Amino acid sequence: MNKKYTIKFKYGAEVITSSEIENDFYRLEVESTDDRYSVTLVPKKNFEMVDFYAEMPFTFKKGDKFFGAGYQSWTKSKEWTEDEIMPGTIKLSNISEYTKDIARKTSDEWIVKYSYKPGEFHSHCYTYIMSGSNVKLWGSLSEKTGYTIFKVKMKENKFYFTKDLLGKVVSEPLKIFDIVYFEGDYEEVFDKYFGMWKMPETRFGMMSGYTSWYNYFQNITEDIIIRDLNGLDPYKDQVNIFQIDDGYETFIGDWLDPNPAKFPKGMKYIADEIHKKGYKAGIWLAPFNCQKISRMAKEHPDWLIKHENGKPMVGCIAWGGAYTFDIYNEEVREYLRHVFDVVLNEWGYDMVKLDFLYSQCIKPRHGKSRGEIMCDAMEFLRECVGDKLFLGCGVPMGPAMGICDACRISCDVDLTYKGKFYSRIQVSNEMLNARSAINNSIFRRHMNGRVWMNDPDVFFLRKNNLKFTDEQKYLLGKINNLCGNVLFVSDNAGDYDSVASTLVKKFFNKTDEKIITAEYLNKSDIKLVTEKDGKRETFIFNIDKGEILSDKSWKKYFV
Questions:
Q1: How many angstroms separate the first and last alpha carbons of the chain?
Q2: Among candidates 347, 429, 421, 426, which has minimal Cα distance to 388?
Q3: pLDDT (tens digit per residue) in 109-124
Q4: Strand (E) positions, 273-329?
Q5: Dihedral (C-alpha) 374, 13, 10, 48: value to the nearest 10 degrees?
Q6: Mean pLDDT of the chain, nearest integer
Q7: Mean pLDDT of 484-504
């Protein structure tokens, strides 16, 4: 199809917008076949990019669905229809620059403008348009020059290929798009697309076990961890990993300073105890972040990403706000290499869960675009992790592909099924609750076993410190098992009754059941058609309430 180009760039103090294929500043080299499309910008002068997009006509039919792949691990991903509106942050968050910054910190609203109009959607790295069982998929093969974002205005029959190049200084030929196109059924197009990426072999693997976060949060201690480790003994045939989450460190950023009051024997002792059980040992870090009160922030203020006014940039709102290390500072790189060397080789951990990674690329800098920065960051982390397991979290999806062995594909679940009150008023597309996690698990299921091991976050079976019905617990466990290969609980399994004992074994064992189709019947009800041993079944549930509507067979476990 013919495409109309718009290029916006800064030359000195002047901002220039052009739709020309060639002029005094640049030349576009376009290659297009039935299944591949590329654009290379060849500069004649040095300039700084602001925006680039290609517009093409596309005829949308009634009932077509556009898949919006979310920006990062936690961002909502689903199939949208022309009468729906893609929500961003609520208007209330715009009352001040501070509240706007807080609400949008984890989102793509730094990159993409939401129109809040029916039928106007966007998707990161890849997308598809579904007409009945026919799927047309477009996907980027590299985000190393910047984020590829697909946009549609379905009511106007318009389709855009865009590239987030803000801040990119162009001085040599720049491949802007490298996009492939496939048409077929759902499984076929994803086999072809993801088959073109170089993925780690561990994408075919599975991890089942424990993570400490969703019972104690930062309030973990050596005694709690050892108790919960021992609590898994009755299920050791189903468990292969045990992960320590946030709370072992004194402060975020001071990764080699375990809290001596909470972990007096140190973190190597914990890894050794996990290994004695025959499990892999996992540990959490937010490698790019440091609390304002951390030793690293105080001793090395020059390591931090800064605003134009010289003040450190807050990269995430957790822990009362945390700064972000700049990976282009060689001392930062040396520090992080040392951290990983100690954690993986001296302490002996087999897997690292690396979180809040998006914070590295909020701000374009050093003549690089956000996507370029994130790709550099992920390649650096892979170098640090070596051949150990890398579970990504809070990470933009495109730059994580081909790097992570496993990846969170949903937001955090919460201890209440519907989440906190601010989740329900849609502060952003990344707010934590089981409803959003279930949605993402279903609509990102195509990544599982193709790109990495999907981590849909934990499921719960305990009775204490939790506000889930038995039905909601069963639903979350079933969806996680269907859509993910990282199957974790945060419960002290030593407290399980006979019902929980039966279900944890069920959900830790990956099912052979496959989702054939998934769709929203209305705003709240989801219909899955699954297949196992050649037999198809229909599973319908209300995602808002966590109620299973198709049958009540789940009840047999709770009698």
A1: 60
A2: 347
A3: 999 999 999 999 999 9
A4: 280-285, 289-291, 314-316, 322-324
A5: -40
A6: 96
A7: 98
Residue 139 near residue 150 (C-beta atoms within 8 A):
no
List strands edge to edge, sheet with 36-43.
Answer: 26-32, 36-43, 174-184, 134-140, 126-131, 65-68, 78-80
Cα(214)–Cα(246) distance, integer angstroms? 10
Report the pLDDT value the prediction gives residue 156, as an integer from 0 to 100.
Answer: 97
What SS3 class is residue 270?
Answer: helix
Residue extents of the structural domains in the chain = 4-194
Q: How confident is the model at residue 422, as a pLDDT?
A: 60
Question: Residue 342 gets which letter from DSSP?
Answer: I
Cα dihedral 467, 469, 474, 476 sign:
negative
Spatial contact of 312 and 301, defined as CB atoms under 8 Å apart: yes
Strands (E), 456-553: 486-489, 514-520, 525-532, 535-542, 547-548
Length of the chain: 559
Contact 481, 511 (CB under 8 A): yes
pLDDT of amino acid 454? 98
Which pair of tokens denotes residue 161?
């290929």
Model confidence pLDDT, tens digit, residues 125-151: 999 999 999 999 999 999 999 999 999
Residue located via tokens 């000195």: 12
Identify the pLDDT of residue 427.
53
Higher pLDDT, 304 or 421: 304
Long-range contacts of 31-38 (CB under 8 A, 24+ apart): 34/181, 35/180, 35/181, 35/182, 36/178, 36/179, 36/180, 36/181, 37/161, 37/177, 37/179, 37/180, 37/181, 38/175, 38/177, 38/178, 38/179
One-letter amino acid of 464: N
Positive or negative, the CA dihedral 489, 494, 500, 503 is positive
Structure tokens at 443: 């609509």
